[in-house]
Amino acid sequence: MLLDYFRLLSALSLSLDILEKRNFGHARKVAYVAIRLARKLNIKRDEEDKIFYSAFLHDIGKSDVYEDFNSNNTWVHSLRGSDMVKDMPRGHEFSDIIKYHHENWDGSGYFHINGDSIPFEAQIIYLADQFDVKYNTVSITMNEYGTRKHIEKWFNDESGKSFNPIVVKVLNDLMKQEKFWLDYEHYDTFDVLRPYISNETMIIDINDLSKIARVFSNIIDNKSHFTYKHSKGISEIAYKAALISGYDEMMAKKVKIAGLLHDLGKLAIPNEILDKPDKLTEEEFMIIKSHTYYTKKILMEIGGIDDIAEWAANHHEKLDGSGYPEGLTGDDLDDISRLMAVCDMYQALTEDRPYRKGLAHIEAIDTIYKLVKLNKIDGRSLDIIKEVEL
Q1: Would the CA dihedral through 26, 27, 28, 32 be positive or negative?
Q2: pLDDT in tens, 142-157
Protein backbone atom coordinates (compact mmCIF):
# COMPACT_ATOMS: atom_id res chain seq x y z
CA MET A 1 0.00 0.00 0.00
CA LEU A 2 1.37 3.41 -1.01
CA LEU A 3 -0.42 6.62 -0.01
CA ASP A 4 -0.03 10.29 -0.87
CA TYR A 5 1.13 12.02 2.34
CA PHE A 6 -0.47 15.29 1.21
CA ARG A 7 -3.93 13.76 0.83
CA LEU A 8 -3.55 11.85 4.08
CA LEU A 9 -2.63 14.89 6.18
CA SER A 10 -5.17 17.06 4.40
CA ALA A 11 -7.95 14.61 5.27
CA LEU A 12 -6.88 13.99 8.85
CA SER A 13 -6.59 17.75 9.41
CA LEU A 14 -10.39 17.84 9.16
CA SER A 15 -10.56 15.92 12.43
CA LEU A 16 -8.43 18.59 14.10
CA ASP A 17 -10.83 21.25 12.80
CA ILE A 18 -13.87 19.58 14.36
CA LEU A 19 -11.93 18.93 17.58
CA GLU A 20 -11.26 22.63 18.10
CA LYS A 21 -14.80 23.52 16.99
CA ARG A 22 -13.76 25.20 13.77
CA ASN A 23 -15.44 24.79 10.44
CA PHE A 24 -13.90 22.13 8.24
CA GLY A 25 -10.96 23.41 6.26
CA HIS A 26 -8.90 25.55 8.63
CA ALA A 27 -5.69 23.60 8.04
CA ARG A 28 -6.26 23.50 4.28
CA LYS A 29 -6.74 27.25 4.15
CA VAL A 30 -3.60 27.76 6.23
CA ALA A 31 -1.74 25.44 3.85
CA TYR A 32 -2.98 27.43 0.87
CA VAL A 33 -1.98 30.84 2.26
CA ALA A 34 1.35 29.48 3.50
CA ILE A 35 2.34 27.85 0.22
CA ARG A 36 1.41 30.98 -1.75
CA LEU A 37 3.62 33.02 0.55
CA ALA A 38 6.43 30.48 0.23
CA ARG A 39 6.30 30.59 -3.57
CA LYS A 40 6.40 34.40 -3.63
CA LEU A 41 9.36 34.31 -1.24
CA ASN A 42 11.23 31.89 -3.53
CA ILE A 43 11.77 29.36 -0.78
CA LYS A 44 13.56 26.13 -1.72
CA ARG A 45 11.36 23.21 -2.72
CA ASP A 46 12.23 21.02 0.28
CA GLU A 47 11.44 23.91 2.63
CA GLU A 48 8.13 24.36 0.79
CA ASP A 49 7.23 20.77 1.57
CA LYS A 50 7.96 21.30 5.26
CA ILE A 51 5.68 24.33 5.28
CA PHE A 52 2.94 22.46 3.46
CA TYR A 53 2.95 19.46 5.78
CA SER A 54 3.38 21.61 8.90
CA ALA A 55 0.31 23.62 7.91
CA PHE A 56 -1.86 20.51 8.07
CA LEU A 57 -0.43 19.55 11.46
CA HIS A 58 0.10 22.92 13.14
CA ASP A 59 -2.87 22.51 15.51
CA ILE A 60 -2.39 18.82 16.26
CA GLY A 61 -1.57 19.64 19.89
CA LYS A 62 -4.87 21.39 20.61
CA SER A 63 -7.26 20.03 23.19
CA ASP A 64 -11.03 20.14 22.83
CA VAL A 65 -10.99 23.68 24.23
CA TYR A 66 -11.03 26.30 21.48
CA GLU A 67 -8.07 28.66 21.66
CA ASP A 68 -8.38 31.77 19.51
CA PHE A 69 -5.64 34.15 18.48
CA ASN A 70 -6.14 36.30 21.61
CA SER A 71 -5.37 33.43 23.96
CA ASN A 72 -2.34 33.70 26.21
CA ASN A 73 -1.96 29.93 26.19
CA THR A 74 -1.34 29.19 22.53
CA TRP A 75 2.15 27.99 23.43
CA VAL A 76 0.60 24.96 25.17
CA HIS A 77 -0.75 23.36 22.00
CA SER A 78 2.35 24.45 20.07
CA LEU A 79 4.67 22.65 22.49
CA ARG A 80 2.42 19.60 22.76
CA GLY A 81 2.07 19.40 19.00
CA SER A 82 5.82 19.63 18.42
CA ASP A 83 6.26 16.51 20.55
CA MET A 84 3.38 14.61 18.96
CA VAL A 85 4.57 14.96 15.37
CA LYS A 86 7.93 13.40 16.19
CA ASP A 87 6.19 10.02 16.01
CA MET A 88 5.05 10.65 12.43
CA PRO A 89 6.97 10.21 9.14
CA ARG A 90 9.39 13.16 8.76
CA GLY A 91 7.86 14.60 11.91
CA HIS A 92 11.21 15.72 13.31
CA GLU A 93 11.37 18.16 10.37
CA PHE A 94 8.07 19.77 11.40
CA SER A 95 8.60 19.76 15.16
CA ASP A 96 10.27 23.17 15.61
CA ILE A 97 8.01 24.79 13.02
CA ILE A 98 4.98 23.74 15.04
CA LYS A 99 6.62 24.62 18.34
CA TYR A 100 7.27 28.22 17.32
CA HIS A 101 4.28 28.91 15.06
CA HIS A 102 2.81 31.42 17.53
CA GLU A 103 5.97 33.40 18.27
CA ASN A 104 5.83 37.13 17.68
CA TRP A 105 8.45 38.86 15.55
CA ASP A 106 9.21 41.37 18.32
CA GLY A 107 9.99 38.63 20.87
CA SER A 108 6.83 39.08 22.96
CA GLY A 109 5.75 35.45 22.47
CA TYR A 110 5.96 32.73 25.10
CA PHE A 111 9.43 31.49 24.12
CA HIS A 112 10.81 35.05 23.85
CA ILE A 113 12.70 34.49 20.63
CA ASN A 114 12.50 37.20 18.04
CA GLY A 115 13.23 38.14 14.46
CA ASP A 116 15.30 35.69 12.47
CA SER A 117 15.73 33.49 15.55
CA ILE A 118 12.22 32.21 14.80
CA PRO A 119 12.30 29.48 12.12
CA PHE A 120 11.27 31.15 8.87
CA GLU A 121 8.78 28.36 8.13
CA ALA A 122 7.15 29.01 11.52
CA GLN A 123 6.86 32.71 10.68
CA ILE A 124 4.96 31.84 7.51
CA ILE A 125 2.66 29.33 9.24
CA TYR A 126 1.90 31.88 11.98
CA LEU A 127 0.88 34.55 9.50
CA ALA A 128 -1.20 32.10 7.44
CA ASP A 129 -2.90 30.78 10.58
CA GLN A 130 -3.79 34.25 11.80
CA PHE A 131 -5.02 35.22 8.33
CA ASP A 132 -7.63 32.46 8.47
CA VAL A 133 -8.57 33.11 12.11
CA LYS A 134 -8.93 36.82 11.42
CA TYR A 135 -10.95 36.24 8.25
CA ASN A 136 -13.40 33.90 10.01
CA THR A 137 -13.80 36.31 12.92
CA VAL A 138 -14.30 39.47 10.88
CA SER A 139 -16.43 38.02 8.07
CA ILE A 140 -19.20 37.19 10.54
CA THR A 141 -20.08 40.87 10.87
CA MET A 142 -18.66 42.41 7.68
CA ASN A 143 -19.26 41.97 3.96
CA GLU A 144 -16.47 40.63 1.75
CA TYR A 145 -15.13 44.07 0.82
CA GLY A 146 -15.04 45.23 4.43
CA THR A 147 -13.44 41.97 5.56
CA ARG A 148 -10.60 42.29 3.07
CA LYS A 149 -9.89 45.91 3.97
CA HIS A 150 -9.95 45.15 7.69
CA ILE A 151 -7.52 42.25 7.27
CA GLU A 152 -5.15 44.32 5.17
CA LYS A 153 -5.07 47.10 7.78
CA TRP A 154 -4.66 44.68 10.68
CA PHE A 155 -1.65 42.92 9.18
CA ASN A 156 0.01 46.21 8.31
CA ASP A 157 -0.55 47.39 11.88
CA GLU A 158 1.03 44.17 13.19
CA SER A 159 4.00 44.32 10.80
CA GLY A 160 7.19 44.43 12.88
CA LYS A 161 5.26 43.40 15.99
CA SER A 162 3.57 40.03 15.48
CA PHE A 163 4.88 39.40 11.99
CA ASN A 164 8.00 39.68 9.89
CA PRO A 165 7.61 42.86 7.76
CA ILE A 166 8.99 41.04 4.71
CA VAL A 167 6.30 38.35 4.93
CA VAL A 168 3.59 40.98 5.49
CA LYS A 169 4.77 42.80 2.37
CA VAL A 170 4.46 39.61 0.33
CA LEU A 171 0.98 39.03 1.78
CA ASN A 172 0.00 42.54 0.66
CA ASP A 173 1.09 41.65 -2.86
CA LEU A 174 -0.94 38.45 -2.77
CA MET A 175 -4.02 40.23 -1.44
CA LYS A 176 -4.07 42.37 -4.59
CA GLN A 177 -4.88 39.24 -6.60
CA GLU A 178 -8.54 38.33 -6.88
CA LYS A 179 -7.49 34.73 -7.54
CA PHE A 180 -5.80 34.57 -4.14
CA TRP A 181 -9.04 35.42 -2.33
CA LEU A 182 -11.22 33.15 -4.47
CA ASP A 183 -8.88 30.18 -4.15
CA TYR A 184 -8.73 30.74 -0.39
CA GLU A 185 -12.53 30.66 -0.20
CA HIS A 186 -12.64 27.41 -2.22
CA TYR A 187 -10.25 25.53 0.05
CA ASP A 188 -12.50 22.44 0.00
CA THR A 189 -11.32 21.23 -3.40
CA PHE A 190 -8.01 19.48 -3.90
CA ASP A 191 -7.70 21.26 -7.22
CA VAL A 192 -6.83 24.51 -5.42
CA LEU A 193 -3.91 22.98 -3.53
CA ARG A 194 -2.73 20.38 -6.02
CA PRO A 195 -0.78 22.83 -8.29
CA TYR A 196 1.38 23.82 -5.33
CA ILE A 197 2.44 20.30 -4.43
CA SER A 198 5.92 19.10 -5.27
CA ASN A 199 6.16 16.57 -8.08
CA GLU A 200 8.01 14.42 -5.55
CA THR A 201 5.06 14.26 -3.16
CA MET A 202 5.99 12.04 -0.25
CA ILE A 203 4.58 8.51 -0.45
CA ILE A 204 4.06 6.44 2.70
CA ASP A 205 3.56 2.73 3.30
CA ILE A 206 1.48 0.64 5.72
CA ASN A 207 4.00 1.01 8.56
CA ASP A 208 4.08 4.80 8.24
CA LEU A 209 0.28 4.85 8.18
CA SER A 210 0.29 2.80 11.38
CA LYS A 211 2.50 5.40 13.08
CA ILE A 212 0.16 8.22 12.02
CA ALA A 213 -2.90 6.23 13.12
CA ARG A 214 -1.38 5.75 16.59
CA VAL A 215 -0.81 9.49 16.95
CA PHE A 216 -4.41 10.24 16.03
CA SER A 217 -5.76 7.44 18.23
CA ASN A 218 -4.08 9.19 21.16
CA ILE A 219 -5.94 12.38 20.25
CA ILE A 220 -9.22 10.46 20.04
CA ASP A 221 -8.78 8.54 23.29
CA ASN A 222 -7.52 11.57 25.23
CA LYS A 223 -10.70 13.48 24.46
CA SER A 224 -12.57 11.65 27.22
CA HIS A 225 -11.30 10.28 30.53
CA PHE A 226 -13.49 7.22 30.06
CA THR A 227 -12.18 6.23 26.63
CA TYR A 228 -8.46 6.78 27.07
CA LYS A 229 -7.64 3.18 26.07
CA HIS A 230 -10.60 2.44 23.81
CA SER A 231 -9.10 2.80 20.32
CA LYS A 232 -5.87 1.07 21.25
CA GLY A 233 -7.80 -1.75 22.90
CA ILE A 234 -9.96 -2.37 19.84
CA SER A 235 -6.98 -2.21 17.50
CA GLU A 236 -5.15 -4.93 19.42
CA ILE A 237 -8.20 -7.21 19.63
CA ALA A 238 -9.04 -6.67 15.95
CA TYR A 239 -5.45 -7.33 14.86
CA LYS A 240 -5.28 -10.64 16.75
CA ALA A 241 -8.76 -11.62 15.58
CA ALA A 242 -7.82 -10.94 11.95
CA LEU A 243 -4.80 -13.25 12.21
CA ILE A 244 -6.91 -15.96 13.84
CA SER A 245 -9.41 -15.56 10.99
CA GLY A 246 -6.67 -16.46 8.52
CA TYR A 247 -5.85 -13.04 7.08
CA ASP A 248 -2.22 -12.28 6.24
CA GLU A 249 -0.04 -9.77 8.10
CA MET A 250 -0.77 -6.90 5.67
CA MET A 251 -4.54 -7.32 6.03
CA ALA A 252 -4.24 -7.65 9.81
CA LYS A 253 -2.28 -4.39 9.96
CA LYS A 254 -5.01 -2.66 7.96
CA VAL A 255 -7.61 -3.99 10.38
CA LYS A 256 -5.49 -2.68 13.26
CA ILE A 257 -5.42 0.79 11.66
CA ALA A 258 -9.21 0.69 11.26
CA GLY A 259 -9.41 -0.01 14.99
CA LEU A 260 -7.14 2.89 15.83
CA LEU A 261 -9.18 5.32 13.73
CA HIS A 262 -12.72 3.94 14.11
CA ASP A 263 -13.77 6.70 16.52
CA LEU A 264 -12.09 9.56 14.67
CA GLY A 265 -15.48 11.22 14.27
CA LYS A 266 -15.96 11.37 18.05
CA LEU A 267 -13.75 14.44 18.01
CA ALA A 268 -16.92 16.22 16.83
CA ILE A 269 -18.94 15.12 19.88
CA PRO A 270 -19.10 17.47 22.91
CA ASN A 271 -17.53 16.10 26.09
CA GLU A 272 -20.67 16.81 28.07
CA ILE A 273 -22.30 14.07 26.02
CA LEU A 274 -19.34 11.67 25.94
CA ASP A 275 -18.85 11.93 29.70
CA LYS A 276 -22.51 12.15 30.74
CA PRO A 277 -23.04 9.93 33.81
CA ASP A 278 -26.71 9.25 33.01
CA LYS A 279 -28.63 7.74 30.12
CA LEU A 280 -28.48 9.87 26.98
CA THR A 281 -31.57 11.65 25.74
CA GLU A 282 -32.81 10.90 22.23
CA GLU A 283 -31.31 14.18 21.05
CA GLU A 284 -27.93 13.38 22.64
CA PHE A 285 -27.94 9.90 21.13
CA MET A 286 -28.68 11.44 17.73
CA ILE A 287 -25.52 13.56 18.13
CA ILE A 288 -23.46 10.54 19.23
CA LYS A 289 -24.54 8.62 16.12
CA SER A 290 -22.98 11.26 13.87
CA HIS A 291 -19.46 10.21 14.85
CA THR A 292 -19.41 7.24 12.46
CA TYR A 293 -20.48 9.53 9.62
CA TYR A 294 -17.54 11.85 10.30
CA THR A 295 -15.14 8.93 10.60
CA LYS A 296 -16.08 7.73 7.13
CA LYS A 297 -16.11 11.21 5.61
CA ILE A 298 -12.60 11.98 6.81
CA LEU A 299 -11.03 8.61 5.97
CA MET A 300 -12.61 8.43 2.51
CA GLU A 301 -10.94 11.74 1.64
CA ILE A 302 -7.53 10.12 1.96
CA GLY A 303 -8.02 7.90 -1.07
CA GLY A 304 -6.52 4.43 -1.36
CA ILE A 305 -7.85 3.15 1.98
CA ASP A 306 -11.56 2.84 1.23
CA ASP A 307 -11.59 -0.62 2.81
CA ILE A 308 -10.15 0.73 6.08
CA ALA A 309 -12.65 3.59 5.97
CA GLU A 310 -15.55 1.15 5.60
CA TRP A 311 -14.39 -1.13 8.40
CA ALA A 312 -13.80 1.82 10.71
CA ALA A 313 -17.16 3.46 10.01
CA ASN A 314 -19.32 0.32 10.09
CA HIS A 315 -18.67 -0.65 13.69
CA HIS A 316 -22.18 0.37 14.83
CA GLU A 317 -24.07 -1.26 11.96
CA LYS A 318 -26.25 -4.30 12.78
CA LEU A 319 -27.11 -7.39 10.73
CA ASP A 320 -30.84 -6.61 10.91
CA GLY A 321 -30.40 -3.04 9.63
CA SER A 322 -31.05 -1.37 13.00
CA GLY A 323 -27.55 0.13 13.30
CA TYR A 324 -26.10 3.45 12.18
CA PRO A 325 -25.19 5.62 10.35
CA GLU A 326 -26.42 3.92 7.15
CA GLY A 327 -28.71 1.19 8.46
CA LEU A 328 -26.77 -1.48 6.58
CA THR A 329 -27.84 -5.13 6.78
CA GLY A 330 -25.91 -8.38 6.88
CA ASP A 331 -25.84 -8.50 3.08
CA ASP A 332 -23.97 -5.16 3.06
CA LEU A 333 -21.40 -6.02 5.72
CA ASP A 334 -18.25 -7.98 4.95
CA ASP A 335 -16.57 -10.26 7.46
CA ILE A 336 -14.18 -7.63 8.77
CA SER A 337 -16.95 -5.07 9.29
CA ARG A 338 -18.82 -7.71 11.28
CA LEU A 339 -15.68 -8.49 13.26
CA MET A 340 -15.04 -4.80 14.02
CA ALA A 341 -18.55 -4.45 15.43
CA VAL A 342 -17.93 -7.27 17.90
CA CYS A 343 -14.49 -5.92 18.85
CA ASP A 344 -15.96 -2.49 19.53
CA MET A 345 -18.80 -3.91 21.59
CA TYR A 346 -16.52 -6.15 23.65
CA GLN A 347 -14.05 -3.36 24.36
CA ALA A 348 -16.84 -0.95 25.32
CA LEU A 349 -18.54 -3.44 27.63
CA THR A 350 -15.33 -4.24 29.51
CA GLU A 351 -14.37 -0.58 30.04
CA ASP A 352 -15.52 1.63 32.89
CA ARG A 353 -17.95 4.28 31.68
CA PRO A 354 -19.52 7.29 33.47
CA TYR A 355 -22.75 5.36 34.07
CA ARG A 356 -21.39 1.86 34.92
CA LYS A 357 -18.39 -0.27 35.80
CA GLY A 358 -16.82 -2.43 33.11
CA LEU A 359 -18.06 -6.02 32.81
CA ALA A 360 -15.93 -9.10 33.36
CA HIS A 361 -14.90 -11.08 30.27
CA ILE A 362 -17.59 -13.77 30.57
CA GLU A 363 -20.30 -11.19 31.27
CA ALA A 364 -19.34 -9.24 28.15
CA ILE A 365 -19.38 -12.41 26.02
CA ASP A 366 -22.81 -13.36 27.37
CA THR A 367 -24.17 -9.89 26.67
CA ILE A 368 -22.96 -9.99 23.07
CA TYR A 369 -24.32 -13.52 22.62
CA LYS A 370 -27.82 -12.26 23.40
CA LEU A 371 -27.48 -9.88 20.47
CA VAL A 372 -26.26 -12.73 18.27
CA LYS A 373 -29.51 -14.59 18.97
CA LEU A 374 -31.43 -11.44 17.95
CA ASN A 375 -29.56 -11.39 14.60
CA LYS A 376 -27.87 -8.09 15.36
CA ILE A 377 -24.28 -9.25 15.82
CA ASP A 378 -22.34 -11.90 13.89
CA GLY A 379 -21.96 -15.16 15.81
CA ARG A 380 -18.88 -16.33 13.95
CA SER A 381 -17.10 -13.10 14.82
CA LEU A 382 -17.95 -13.63 18.48
CA ASP A 383 -16.47 -17.13 18.32
CA ILE A 384 -13.25 -15.64 16.92
CA ILE A 385 -13.09 -13.07 19.75
CA LYS A 386 -13.36 -15.94 22.26
CA GLU A 387 -10.11 -17.33 20.82
CA VAL A 388 -8.20 -14.07 21.21
CA GLU A 389 -5.80 -13.93 24.17
CA LEU A 390 -7.07 -10.88 26.07
Answers
A1: positive
A2: 999 999 999 999 999 9
